Amino acid sequence: MQQSNAEYFSHLVRALRCRVSRYAYYGLAIALAAVVLATVAAVVLAGDPLTLSSMYAAQRDNVTLLAMDVMPFVFAFWGQYVHVILSHEAGAMVLDETESLRTDKAALQAEARRLENHDSLTGLCNRTHFIEQLESSLASAHLNRTRVGIIVLDLDGFSEVNDQFGAANGDRVLKSVARRLTNAVEDSAILLARLGGDSFGVLVETLQSSEMLEKLGRRIQESLEPPCALDQLSLNLGASIGAAVYPDNARDAYALLNAADGAMQHAKTRGGGFELVKARLPLKDAEMHSLSAELRAAIDSEQLVLHLQPLVDIQADRVHGVEALVRWQHPRRGMIMPGDFIPRAERSGLMRDLSNWVLRRALQYTSELRAEGWPLRMSVNLSARSLLDPDFPDVLAGLLAAYEVPSKYLTLEITEDTLMADQRRTLDIITRVANMGVQISIDDFGTGYSQLAYLKRLPASEIKIDRSFVTDMLVSKTDLSIVQATIGLGHALGLRAVAEGIENENQADRLRLLGCDLMQGYYIGRPMPVDKLREWLEQWHLHHEPQPTTIRVEPSESPRLN
Predict the structure, then answer these.
(1) Considering the entire predicted model, what is its pTM?
(2) Where does the EAL domain lie (predicted)?
(3) Are strands 239-246 and 273-276 parallel, antiparallel or unpaired?
């Protein structure tokens, strides 16, 4: 393009030089007219008749007229000379301006490419470029039969820095962390990136061993140990670090990144530090390990099925809602229970995809049942990864709108351990979800290590008493006391108390006397496909609720007791 433009302007200048300009013709015409007029004037003043011969004679005898005969050619030459000079200067100016514009454009394009691939705050590569480079490295590793390692780290308690000292100081901390990481990994990593927020990623190509990745992780930890100076303060930084290796832990870029992220989240639940995804499983678990590779295809090919288990209002003797429980209908192994594949989903980075599939199918069933006259609440278990995803509330709002399900019909169940993993971040996500009108249930209550001071701040709607206490409450005074105290605590906080694992009538009767609100278990109904649930609802309606309007009651707007 540059050569063609230069040739064009050079050709233009040559053409301007070769052609006689109209200004040269104008000068020639004016000079000739002046010569003719001067000759005529000379003849007239001499008193001779105005003829060609007299005009010739005047030219011949008058030296002044002879000198004027040369002027047309002088003017013509001068006009052409000026024209060539101006055209040359104009062409040179155009060429210079074009070259300047071309240089500026190239600089802007280079800067745009740099900004596209780099984080504007830290100067590190951004997430998009990191994933592109990771995909390229994996392709090369596949051909060369080498290994690739990645590290994902997340600063612990960074949200408190922003909250207490402001976003500007938070940016200063991130810049300081970026410099420390650059010094820590400069000899080992081919790429260091800011993945977003306070998360960073490290890509190591041609990894020699897992021990090399562990040493790098320890070096990163050590680089963050010195306090970070912030004005007059010294902040102690810490990080949760996860690492994964190709091809041991995953076969594609996103799965490998999710595996490392899962290890990082697990490290965060232990209070920070470094954790490497374990590549080798015990021999007895080898067959189940292959499920990790098949699970992604199972999600896409509709091998998963959603079973629904009823929840009944003990006091009103009516169906309150259902809980969604995922199953895997494997083409060769048959029905696989969630306890066998959900841990694999967490380790292989597929928990987010699995949770989204369950949410979509659960809301689809909720919409269909409402249209058929069964306005039941749908309870769905929420993973720890979703609670740490700032985009989750927006994704959930989109799904509710897509299936036209009012938010009050959805309850998200969260375990105590999940709530305690990162209290500030989880509280923020839960609050945003609850403000949408979605109800929050604290699952397996009493088995975790939660703090009541933290739990009372949660916008929860109910607590679910763990089945381990319900199972033995008729034979164990301790378990009975725990169940009774949990129900009382829930009511004191304005929450529904839900008992799960009800297996016989005696348990149901005792829970009713204790004031429990909802119950769930095999005594009420086993998890079942949606078609079987429809039959179960008809039977329950036939034997427990003579009046059709008693079951088809819209759930209360209040997220508390109803």
Answers:
(1) 0.51
(2) 288-541
(3) parallel
